[in-house]
Design a protein that fits this description.
single chain, about 140 residues, mainly beta, Jelly Rolls, 1 helix, 8 strands, about 5% helix
Length: about 140
């Protein structure tokens, strides 16, 4: 893993627990990087061992391709299948703004620009702790 790729540690759960609000320990929100070039990390490598899934959104004015990847060692990455919100068809990459859901089974997760022409894209993500079931109240 390159030195410039920061891994967001699993200690984030402990930080949220210290807030004293039990519901905040169930999810973790991130406003992520903006990307303007090929190889840019929209979601830098995140250690996701304690998370069951992620929902992430990409927005901006851009032309390129983002690929969703997982790894067990943060060095060797494999493409993962994410489900676009509102669709039943899984994809390994995207070329337009939108939101995707993805179950997390590997130790690390990232979203990387694998092709880039122009513009700026920004990412947001919500990671959910394993075993938590959301319900409307």
């Amino acid at each position: 893993m390159a030195a410039s790729q920061a891994i967001i540690p699993t200690q984030v759960i402990q930080e949220i627990n210290n807030l004293g609000e039990p519901h905040r320990a169930l999810v973790r929100d991130f406003v992520l990087n903006s990307v303007t070039a090929n190889g840019g990390l929209l979601i830098p490598p995140v250690e996701v061992s304690e998370f069951g899934d992620v929902c992430f959104q990409i927005q901006g004015t851009w032309v390129g391709t983002f690929t969703f990847q997982g790894s067990f060692d943060a060095t060797n990455w494999s493409n993962l299948i994410a489900q676009p919100v509102g669709s039943a068809t899984g994809v390994t990459s995207c070329t337009a703004n939108g939101a995707w859901n993805l179950p997390l089974s590997m130790k690390f997760f990232q979203v990387v620009a694998t092709a880039w022409t122009s513009g700026t894209a920004t990412g947001y993500a919500r990671f959910r702790v394993n075993g938590v079931i959301f319900r409307s109240v």
